[in-house]
Amino acid sequence: EDVYDVKAIEARWGSYWEEAGTFVPLDDGSRERRYVLDMFPYPSGDLHMGHAEAFAMGDVVSRHWRHCGYDVMHPIGWDSFGLPAENAAIKNNQHPAEWTYKNIETQAGSFKRYAISADWNRRLHTSDPEYYRWTQWLFLELFKNGLAYRKDSPVNWCPKDQTVLANEQVVNGKCERCGTEVTKKSLNQWYFKITDFADRLLDEMDQLEGHWPDRVLSMQRNWIGRSHGAHVRFGIQAAGEQPAHDVTVFTTRPDTLFGATFMVVAVDALLAAELVTPGQREAFEAYRESVKVLSDIERQSSEREKTGVFLGRTAINPLSGEEIPVWASDYVLADYGTGAIMAVPAHDQRDLDFARAMDLPVRVVLETGEENPAESGVATVGEGKLVNSGELDGLNKAEAIAQAIGIVESKGLGEATTTYRLRDWLVSRQRFWGAPIPVIHCEHCGEVAVPDEQLPVRLPDNLRGEALSPKGQSPLAAAEDWVNVACPSCGGAAKRDTDTMDTFVDSSWYYLRFASPQSSTAAFDAEAVKNWLPVGQYVGGVEHAILHLLYSRFITKVLQHLGHLDFPEPFSALLNQGQVLNGGKAMSKSLGNGVNLGEQLDEFGVDAIRTTMVFASPPEDDVDWADVAPHAMQKFLARAWRLANDVTSEPGVDPATGAKAVRSATHKALHDALELLDAGKFNVVIARTMELVNAARKAIDGEIGGADPAVREAVETVTLLLSLVAPYTAEDMWARLGHEPSVANVPWPAVDETLLVEDSVTAVVQIRGKIRAKLEVPADISEEELRELALGDEAVKRSVGDAEIVKVIVRAPKLVSLVVK
Ligand code: ANZ
Ligand code: ZN
Question: Which ligand has the shortest distance to the CA of 442?
């Protein structure tokens, strides 16, 4: 029959690939290995359009590489710890595992239907004890090597709900759920020392240049935020007092030291409370109270009116000896630099805004030719020469920076330094559904690592429903028989740590686990990791551009540092696919513009949806579902599929005996497709495939006919190209063409370069306006070549005879005109 029956075709091949093990890598070294990885999903409900987009893109890469002859590993797993499962469990009086594993099954079914070329044997779930046993091992590796530590730190606290709130859960200073005023509470929390690796995280990004999107690299750079500058110490005094102590500021602009007209200390820094004089204390405390509820982003917003309070003291400029007032404000952050700045309003906009609000002086020290900031309200930041700056006068900015650092260093009042925006990674959570932190607290021995043979520290399975609701400490604290253990070191009574790990820890190493997912003796098998890693192509959304990628890079570097790995970067290449929008907006419940993936698959078939996703735009661009036409795509697939029925030659006949025009079209499509795939222009590959489908159809319906071996070659090539995006259709065509499955393992045919030459055209040679010769020339002939050909032609020579050629006009590829006399 000649009807493209999507349902029948899906049913025919639906379970074939998994049963045949089509996508299980050989892993025997007979082929070069390549690793393609999609960011693994979180099991919230079924797959959605975003998954469909991301996984369609990753599958193009994976299938392309398989056709190129690589042994491809394309694994799949689930990031299955996390809060939504816990919230669902509280609501439904369940254990979080129930919700989690039910959703995983649903998603796995959808992935299979979606025909992702995944190796299902490597499937993993981060919430399996077999997995989190190794997450705990990883924690202990950091702990034992001084890279995991505990410290007190302030958290957002809702006194009514008795719970810690993430920054996103604090709305206008109030608890998102109950509206109670949020306070800060100090909690003892675990941190990973990612700051120790800040330089490596920055510098080793060089090797990712050109392989990761530029914007991701710059987001990582900004997040780490390395600033070169200086620490400069200012003496402090109150009226009539001797300098009490020093305050050190961090500045990236020591050249502007003579322009510092006041100092600002972060209002919430301990230092501010120490510095404030008794007379100013009341005003200070009132101010501090008023800014407590603001987030860092609000505090630093340039939109907000600057606020602050005078601390009653002056600071002494170490270069000029000038006395300047010391203020406290919220625009200076307590945990960046030293929490104190020298304010140079002429050349720093924030300082200028503050100076204008508080009526403080503005002094230009770098003459840039711009308008005076005191009048314009705009700080000047250009290049120029130093003025009003004593011994720095006349220097340019770079010279003055070096000179100023030299002077403060020689006086012992400061030194060059580097500061980072990056903070240590807070990894402990007071929640249940995560990997328990494998530490035991003993009064005698302190923090003791759970011995390796006692791992995993399993989550208790008797907690469910209400028992999981947050009570200011981890729900695990209530499981007394779980908490109370013997100290592994002294045998005395001790308690387990009741916090669980941030789920970013789970996902910071899963790409390693995929190399040997069943290993029960190690987190990863060294040999397997050597064979498969780093990941050749990582695919996922830009929402993970910072944290997940940074943490994964950090953990890889730690493991390399500790001798477990021999490469510094986990992901050699990164692709950020775009979002799927509807009507130009992200799909959301509140907008009511959601599109259900399952319904789309039911209506148009898997292949049409996948092909639509890939065809709609370059992979990194958004797809607006309001603008696409899966119905038309289904028609195109049907048209392609019918070609396979109309090929009447047997497989294996040399296509060289077939129609040359068809062969040219085929090899041009193949050639272009390879270049386009390497360049990541997957959408254009589909456009080329469409052209080839048209060429093949024309040949079959015209004089050439379906028996020509060049037509078979064309249709087999269509099949191959379609297998990148439309696996069911392609597999069915392949079978109809008389081949064994699977088309996924068919090598790309070699491109015959001689077939790529453009068709020839006819050039005419005119002499005195009359056509004297016609030449068959390549369409892309150069002016020079055409001129030579024309002048060397026998008929032309004859016509010219003894006359003198005074001028040759060449219009390649069609015309040569000779002026003779
Ligand atoms: C004087 C100065 C003059 C500054 C000037 C800038 C321009 P980045 O590049 O982001 O590292 N600063 C230092 N610590 C701060 C804190 N805790 N909160 C807010 N601002 C802080 O920025 C470094 C600059 O930001 C430092 O250099 C300091 O202001 C300010 F024409 O010192 B500068
Ligand atoms: Zn002990």
Answer: 2
pLDDT, residue 25, reads: 97
Ligand nearest to C-alpha 490: 2
Q: What is the DSSP letter of 209?
A: B
Following CA atoms 789, 792, 794, 797 in sequence, which dihedral angle do they give, to the nearest 10 degrees? 120
From ligand 1's centre to the CA of 588, what distance in Å? 40
3-state DSSP assignment of residue 38: strand
| Closest residue by CA, ligand 1 atom 20 | 332
d(CA 359, CA 351): 11
pLDDT at 783 over 80: yes
Nearest atom, ligand 1, residue 379 CA:
31
Residue 710, amino acid:
A
**Whole-prediction pTM:** 0.87
Measure the CA angle with vertex 282, ends 277 and 284; round to 5°. 70
Per-position DSSP letters for 45-82, written without gaps between them:
SS--HHHHHHHHHHHHHHHHHHHTT-EEE-EEEE---S
Distances (CA, A) of 695 to 108, 216, 340, 642: 39, 41, 71, 14
At 295, the amino acid letter reads S
Helix H or strand E encompassing 269 = none
CA distances 169 to 158, 172, 174, 178, 281, Å, are 10, 10, 8, 11, 32
Over range 372-385, report the average pLDDT.
Answer: 94
DSSP state string for 628-654 = --HHHHHHHHHHHHHHHHH--SPTT--
CA-proximal residue: ligand 1, atom 7 (nearest): 348
DSSP H helical segments within 493-616, as ranges? 503-506, 510-513, 526-532, 547-561, 597-604, 606-615
Could you tell me the pLDDT band of residue 762, with boundaries at 50, 70 and 90? Answer: confident
**Cα-to-chain-centroid distance, residue 585:** 21
Helix (H) or strand (E) holding 774: strand 770-778
Mutate to test the pocket of ligand 1, among 336, 342, 370 (most ligand atoms within 8 A of CB): 336
Strand partners, 251: 230
Cα dihedral 773→774→777→780 (10° resolution): 90
pLDDT at position 499 is 94
pLDDT digits (tens, 9 = 90+) for 650-675: 998 899 999 999 999 999 999 999 99
Helix (H, G, I), strand (E, B) or coil at 139: helix
- Give the residues surrounding ligand 1 with Cβ less than 6 Å away: 227, 250-253, 256, 266, 332-333, 336-337, 339, 341-342, 344, 347-348, 419
**Distance in angstroms (rounded) separating the CA atoms of residues 520 and 528:** 14
**Among 613, 621, 722, 614, CA closest to 49:** 613
Determine whether 567 is exposed, middle or buried from the number of CB atoms within 10 Å of its CB (0-12, 13-18, 19+). middle
Q: Which atom number of ligand 1 is nearest to the Cα of residue 227?
A: 11
Which residue, 305, 294, 310, 299, is CA-closest to 356? 305
Does 292 belong to an annotated binding site? no
Q: Which helix (H) or strand (E) holds 400?
A: helix 397-410
Q: Name the closest ligand to CA 329.
A: 1
Q: Please provide the DSSP assignment of 445-467 as one string.
A: TEEEEPPGGG---PPPSS--GGG
How many Å apart are CA 455 and CA 133, to the nearest integer?
6
The residues pairing with 234 across neighbouring beta strands, listed in sequence order, are 247
- Among 709, 809, 724, smallest CA distance to 766 is for 809
Q: How does pLDDT run across 320-368, given as a tens digit for each residue?
A: 999 999 999 999 999 899 999 999 999 999 999 999 999 999 999 999 9
Q: Determine the Cα–Cα distance for residues 555 and 509; give it in Å rounded to an integer.
A: 7
Half-sphere exposure of 254 (CA within 13 A, CB side): 30
